[in-house]
TrEMBL record:
The lineage of its organism: Eukaryota, Fungi, Dikarya, Ascomycota, Pezizomycotina. It comes from Baudoinia panamericana (strain UAMH 10762). This is Distal membrane-arm assembly complex protein 1-like domain-containing protein. Residues 30-67 form the Distal membrane-arm assembly complex protein 1-like domain. InterPro entries: DMAC1-like_dom, Mitochondrial_unc_protein.
Amino acid sequence: MAPNIDTTALSKSPELSDVLTQQAQAGGYDCLPCRLMGSAVFTGMGIYSWASGTSQLRKRELEILRSKSFYTLGMRKASIWVLSGSLVSLGIYRLYN
């Protein structure tokens, strides 16, 4: 037979500050495989976005230059570098923190 459980204790949600304090005291609640996987995903996304973006820009370079768009080729390259650099940085941050 199942034990008697006080359902009023189950219906109360814990305070966020209490949960965060418990996690901080426990320490190391983020496992190594989780860090490695998260780091690999962010870094991979950064590398893929750089490779994909630069290859697409190379293919469409003449079309972009002819269009006289406000978003010049340099701005587009800079955007790709910023995006991919940010993602790789997040991957490195995820690995160590």
